[in-house]
Amino acid sequence: MIESNVSSKNNKDLIFLAALLAAGLIFFELWMATTNHDNSRDQHLGAAVAYAKGHIDLLRPMLLGFNANGAPTPLEFPIWQALTAVLMKCFGIWYGLGNIVSLVFLFSSFWVMFDLCRRLNSRRTGWWALIFSLAQPLNLIIGAQAGADSTAWAFAMWFVYFSYRMMSEGRLSWWLLAVC
After folding, report:
1. Is the pLDDT score of 37 beyond 90?
2. pLDDT above 50 for 3
3. DSSP string computed for 2-60
């Protein structure tokens, strides 16, 4: 009897492919940043640079180009801008740090998606979902872009994950995490 790959517990082929795609995504984004081929959203990166040069005030958010008169413009809570500014304060102003922060948020959402698919279906389904997410062009163009989009995507994925765990397990702690 021939054993099917689908029923196999060995996912080394998918793990290798996922690692290869992840390394390719990281290499591509860091290559873009080091060769001055900007992959950024100017208003978000500009706010991070302004925070890095001055002080970080989360209660008075600013986005360059949106608050011409100096009034705070709360389009979003500037978590991405603040984290990027902290790195810029530590290591100097380099626009590639924004790509690194975006990559961290993007990859945190990949783990959540993998675990959610694993819980709903199987470990192999989780690996396939991860591979398809890593291979989609949207992640090359926007996912690791120096901007707040990957942060929003990561928070949305974490919300779905925490909500699923709350509904499936009925524990209040998951509700608190989903609300945060």
Report:
1. no
2. no
3. PPPTTT-S--HHHHHHHHHHHHHHHHHHHHHHHTT---B-HHHHHHHHHHHHS---TTS
For residue 117, how many C-alpha atoms fall within 13 Å in the half-sphere facing its CB? 18
Q: Is 38 exposed, middle or buried (0-12, 13-18, 19+ CB in 10 A)?
A: middle
CA distances (Å), 19 to each of 62, 65, 107, 122, 130, in order? Answer: 37, 39, 12, 19, 10
What backbone phi and psi angles, to 5 degrees, belong to 93? Answer: -80, 105
| Token pair listed for 62 | 């600013």
Round to whole Å and give the CA distance between 100 and 167. 33
pLDDT digits (tens, 9 = 90+) for 44-62: 888 888 899 988 888 777 7
Residues 6+ apart with CB under 8 A from 124: 6, 11, 14
Spatial contact of 12 and 5, defined as CB atoms under 8 Å apart: no
Distance CA 66, CA 42 (A): 12
Q: Letter for the amino acid at 56?
A: I
pTM of the model: 0.84
